[in-house]
Amino acid sequence: MASTSTSTSSISPQNFKTRKPSLARRPFKTNLNSFPFSSHLTKPISSKSYSSSSTTTTAAKLYDNEVIVVDEEMGRIRRLQNGSDVRGVALEGEKGRTVDLTPPAVEAIAESFGEWVIGGLEREISGNNDNNKVTVSLGKDPRISGPSLSVAVFSGLSRAGCAVFDMGLATTPACFMSTVLPPFAFDASIMMTASHLPYTRNGLKFFTKKGGLTSPEVEEICDKAARKYANRVAKVSTLLNTPITRVNFMSTYATHLREIIKERINHPSHYDTPLQGFQEASSHGMY
Fold this sequence. Notes:
Protein name: Alpha-D-phosphohexomutase superfamily
InterPro entries: A-D-PHexomutase_a/b/a-I, A-D-PHexomutase_a/b/a-I/II/III, Phosphoglucosamine_mutase
Domain Alpha-D-phosphohexomutase alpha/beta/alpha: 80-227
Keywords: Phosphoprotein
Organism: Parasponia andersonii
Number of helices: 7
Oligomer: single chain
């Protein structure tokens, strides 16, 4: 019979007074031969010695490669900033340029803009905003890349939790005016256009009730979008959390412009048709 002696645990001075004296215990005795251990368990276990240096080096290389890839993907989005706008190549066909304004990139930028509006603006609740959500409108020019990129904008804004309104074909001034003209008065707006650039290009302009965004503000949005884009593995969502509402803002905007023209010309005989006779007079060289 082999006996094993018990060892007492050390007691620190801090808890010495709080410890109760333990009763004396008899040494625990056992017969190891009475347990049915398998004989192979009593044999020494041999193990190989592995060097950790090669594993560490491989892990470091993988980490470095991942960092490089993430940096490259983030750089793709940051390079899309063009001052206070976002501009890029949306279609193939331009020699020496690759498509960089892709639907996933646009989705990340639109989502970041929606979050920026929600988090950074003191907004007035629009009359048509029953769900107390931030309202954002989208207008676009007739570029052929507009429809596919519009879906990406809708998806990104919906991800951010915005109520989205589609104005269809619109002008840049109309997008800003959609944030101030009742009954629309959206909290923000995006115009999808690349102005005078070739048909292969497209871009985004951003507006709030205060006007167009500044270059530092767009830089902040693109930086946030770059992180989203670099870490996102899914493509553009096909299911939107928020339904898109189609609105006819351009009729309201046209009426607004017509009233301004009538008021400024203030024709004494035909106030409601201030441009009457303008074409005839122009053809005779009177203007």
